[in-house]
Structures are given as C-alpha cells and as structure tokens.
Amino acid sequence: MRLRDLPSVDRLLSDEVLGAAPRRVATDAARAALERARDAIRAGDDPGDVVEAARAELARLTAPALRRVLNATGVIVHTNLGRAPLAPAALERVIAVGASYSNLELDLEAGTRGSRQDHVADALRRLTGAEAALVVNNNAGAVLLALAALADGREVVVSRGELVEIGDGFRIPDVLARSGAQMVEVGTTNRTRVADYERAIGPETALLLRVHQSNFRIVGFAERPRTDELAGIAGRAGLWLVDDLGSGSLADLGDEPTVAASLAAGTDLVCFSGDKLLGGPQAGIVVGRAELVARLRRHPLQRALRADKLTLAALEGTLALHADPERARREVPVLRMLDEPPEAVRARAERLAGLVGGEVEETVARVGGGALPLAELPSAACAIEEPLALPLRRGDPPVVGIVRDGRLLLDARTLTDAEVDEVARAVLQARRTL
Predict the structure, then answer these.
(1) Three-state DSSP class for 330?
(2) What is the mean pLDDT of the chain?
(3) What are the counts of helices (DSSP H) followed by strands (DSSP E) for the chain?
(4) What is the pLDDT of residues 306-350, one digit of tens each?
(5) Which of 306, 81, 79 is nearest to 214 (CA)?
(6) Cα separation of 216 and 62, whole Å?
(7) Alpha-carbon distance values, 295 to 148, 153, 292, 298 (Å)
C-alpha cells in the first residue's frame, strides 16, 4: 500500500462504529490510526486494516482509565492495586450518598449548617475510646495537619529509628519540614532510650512524635521506649504525645498496635489510615483529646485536606461493621483474607488449576500496605506459563499475578470464590493471543 492509498479522516469517520462515537474522540482515533499506518508504510511494512485500527484506538480512548483488577498477587493491602477493597456495606453507603443530595454539612434537626466531621466522629469515639475525632484525605495529611496545628515554628522530638519512608518516596522528615515544625532527632537507628527524649526537651519543644515502624522492623540489638513511657515523659514536661500508627488497626492482629491501646497508654493524638487494616476508603483519621482535635479542626490546612462525602460515606459503612468485631472479620475483605484458613485458599487454587490446566504451588502471602511486614500467611497459587503475564494484564478485567522462577503464580488468597471463574476465563482467552 502507498501513502496516497490511505483513507482520509472523513472517510474513516463514515464507518458505522466511528460515526456513532462523539466526533472529537472519533477524529482523534482516526488520526492516530492513520499516523501509525503512515509510519508502517514508510518502514516498508503492511499497515493492516486502518478501519479496524481506528476502531481499536476508539475503544482504547473511550475505555475507563481506572479499572477493576483481579488481584492474584497474594498481597492483601496492595498499594499499587488500590489498597483495601471495600465491604459491600460500605459500597451501599457510597451509592446511597453519591446518587443523591445529602446532609453533608446540614444539621437536619436544627436546620442550620453542620459539620461533615460529625457523621463519623461518634463511631470513631466508640471504637477507640477517644474524646474526639477528625477525618482528612490520607494519613500523611493527618500527620501534617497535627504538626502544623500543634508545633508550627517549634520543636518536635522524634527517634532516629522512626524516621521512616512511606509510599512513593515520602519521608517523615519531609512531612515535618512542610508542617513548619523543627525536627529534633534523638537516639540511634536501633536504640533510643527514655533518657534521650528527656535530654532533648527544651523551652521550644512542642510535642513528642512516635512513628510506628509500619513497613519494617528492627530486630536484634534494639530498644525504644514503650508508648506509656513516652506518654509519661510528655506529661511530666507539659508536652503532647502524637502517635503516627500508619496502618491503624482497630482489631487485635498480633504485631500491629491498636488505636485504642495507644490512647489507653496515654497518647494525646493518634493518626492512622483508613484504607489499610481498617479496610475502608483512603482517609487519614485523627483521634484523641478533644481540645487538640478542636485545634486541628480550626486550622486553615484542615479545609484543604478534608475528606469528601463519598469517602465519609464509605468510612461510615466500614466503621459500622467494626462495631461488631465478629461481623467485621467476616465482611471486611482485608480482615476476611487475613483470617481465611490455608485449606480454604488451597481449595480455591486447586479449582483454578483444574479449570486452566495449571499446577498448585504452596506460597506465602503478605499483608502489604506497610502493615505487619514480618507476617507470612500460608497460601497456595495456581502456576501457569510466564508469557501469559502480559496478556492477562491487558485483559478485561486485568489479572495481576507474580512472576517467579519462570512461571506466573496466581495466588488464591487474594481471590474470591467468584473471581476464580473470571480468572480461568481470562487465562484461556490470554492463551489464544499467544
């Protein structure tokens, strides 16, 4: 084919499929297909069916960019895959609130302006034992707001062993710097003692900051004060103790401290995430003393960081499940996957292997999301051919597994029973593309 034999944009737009699409996006699809065809001809290659190429480009341009993915990685709180999936009860609240107007900032009883924070504050107080609560858009924002409201221009004492880096390269020292507070490091990477904090406190000290080592642990020759010891130091010096718990579990999950335990130990403010071990939407939650939470609510930065109505609706639905711990373990997906016995996971892997002709392999699943880094969950995967990894990611819905030792592992701990059939269909379709 020669360049002059290619159809014009107008001729492509006369196609039944392209012509039925919005003209602007159809035009972009036609032009992109023609440009690729010209490049192919100049390179001496066959450009193929330009109409079909334009249709394929149109489908790509009109498809949602944010898509549902089947997680077969065995990582439960997978940061790249949206962290915690929401429980049905939380999704019901999102639909109910998002599909209509809501009383987001209206006091229905008084008929006057209300606060969006009131919708989840009572539930958070009951679940944690805190005096007050506040919700912003993520935990980094919660820590930033707490430091800006309580320590702007003053000193914050923090252990060197807690200067952690969280997702996407954000570091605690950077958050401190942006808040306007001045960081005072104490101790060493592996050992920080009560006396280190006491020596660092001076007239410009505003608070002590404790940062939970969410995504790592220091073992061996290590030491750091307990939360109640830090609370005692802060109380004797007339300072506040702020505890950044990161993952923020409400349930007892072994190595992960709970929000209620931190408050009971004497912490003044606790900050934690909504979309990790809580199993809710992305949110930063602050609970603690009423007078301090009130200062955060009045700070100008709070408006820039506040959560929207859909986040609050999903969080309200999630917290309602946590009011009954046994129900939360059954219905909050993250907690259900953590609790599921290995034999149930293996049965799911065996069923998938039978459907696609794969082999069952014992694996170790992870919590992910910077939580419980030492936890190893016995799991099982269906092992198939490694070249299927790319076509599976390109499928609808995409399937993401783990490539290891020349095979693609589809871990069944992070798949539901219903999703096994979807994955099986995706694997069979992907094989046809190879």
Answers:
(1) helix
(2) 93
(3) 19, 15
(4) 999 999 999 999 999 999 999 999 999 999 999 999 999 999 999
(5) 79
(6) 41
(7) 10, 16, 5, 5
DSSP codes of every residue in 168-230: GG-BHHHHHHHHT-EEEEES-SSB--HHHHHHH--TTEEEEEEE--TT----SS-B---HHHH
Name the residue with tokens 């409400």.
250
- What are 343-371's pLDDT values in tens digits? 999 999 999 999 999 999 999 999 987 77
CA atoms within 13 A on the CB side of 198: 8
Out of 1.10.10.10, 3.40.50.300, 3.40.430.10, 3.90.1150.180, select the CATH number for domain 70-80+335-433. Answer: 3.90.1150.180
Quick check: helix, strand or coil at residue 137? coil
Q: How many residues does the chain have?
A: 434
Report the alpha-carbon distance of residue 112 to residue 414 in Å, rounded: 46
Q: Selecting from 3.30.1330.30, 3.40.640.10, 3.40.50.80, 3.30.70.860, what CATH number does the domain 88-324 have?
A: 3.40.640.10
Report the DSSP beta bridge partners of residue 359.
383
Strand 359-365 with 377-385, pairing = antiparallel
Name the region of 74 (left: φ>0; alpha: ψ -120 to 50; beta: rest). left
Place of tokens 């609050």: 312
Contacts of 54 (CB under 8 A, 6+ apart): 12, 15, 18, 29, 30, 32, 33, 34
**Structural element, H or E, at residue 364:** strand 359-365
Return the amino acid letter for 362: E
How do residues 187-230 score in pLDDT, each as one tens digit?
Answer: 887 889 999 999 999 999 999 999 987 655 666 666 888 999 99
Q: Is 41 exposed, middle or buried (0-12, 13-18, 19+ CB in 10 A)?
A: middle
Q: Where in the chain is the domain with CATH 3.90.1150.180?
A: 70-80+335-433
* Of 248, 264, 288, the residue nearest 130 (C-alpha): 288
Query: CA-CA distance, 427 to 434, in Å (whole number)?
Result: 11
**Three-state SS at 250:** coil
